[in-house]
Specification:
1 helix, Immunoglobulin-like, 7 strands
Length: 123
């Protein structure tokens, strides 16, 4: 079997799974929570290119390289999702945490974009 057939058989040429996400906005920024079951911190990649945030993760299925699946319903072993961020978000200060297969990203707003109160002086 050639390498193209082997890679197709393992599902690496198949499109990536889209992880389900929740996005919540508050006055200080947005929080993105993505379900990535089976993805470890070591197999997770988060990148920002311009205004595009991309999350990619490889699933560790625990298969031995010497074994070949006779039947497998899960053929795709990776997740990938991209988001276009607004210009009012500060992509330099993104915070990421992973716990129990859930990735939490916090993207704060730029200081200029945050609502502020303007005091009124007596004339």
């Amino acid at each position: 079997m050639d390498t193209q057939q082997a890679s197709a058989k393992r599902g690496t040429d198949a499109p990536a799974l889209l992880p389900p996400v929740d996005i919540v906005e508050d006055q200080n920024g947005i929080t993105v929570k993505a379900d990535l079951p089976g993805v470890s911190r070591e197999n997770l990649s988060i990148s920002v290119d311009g205004e595009t945030l991309t999350v990619e993760g490889a699933v560790a299925l625990g298969e031995s390289q010497k074994m070949e699946a006779v039947y497998a319903e899960v053929r795709v072993a990776r997740y990938r999702r991209s988001f276009v961020l607004g210009r009012d978000l500060d992509t330099e200060r993104i915070d990421a945490a992973m716990k129990n297969g859930v990735l939490t990203l916090r993207v704060p707003k730029r200081e200029q974009a945050k609502p502020r109160r303007i005091p009124v002086k007596a004339a």
